[in-house]
Design brief:
Length: 68
């Protein structure tokens, strides 16, 4: 965590250590950034699409790393 993190992100990162210590912090930060960006958008398809792209990219990267 750094001093630029808002309270919600700080809390999320702290609880990650207890609930899912193996969860990648960068992935959590990126998910939070997507949700924060679209939190007031009436169109819920935007954050959904962004989250799907993020997860698909991460899965593809992990799959590529394992096959190397």
């Amino acid at each position: 965590m750094n001093s630029n993190d808002d309270l919600a992100l700080q809390t999320l990162l702290a609880s990650r250590l207890d609930a899912a210590p193996n969860l990648d912090e960068e992935l959590l930060r990126l998910c939070y950034a997507i949700q924060n960006k679209y939190q007031f958008s009436e169109d819920r398809t935007q954050p959904l699409s962004a989250m799907e792209r993020l997860i698909d990219d991460r899965v593809a990267k992990l799959s590529a790393d394992r096959s190397s």
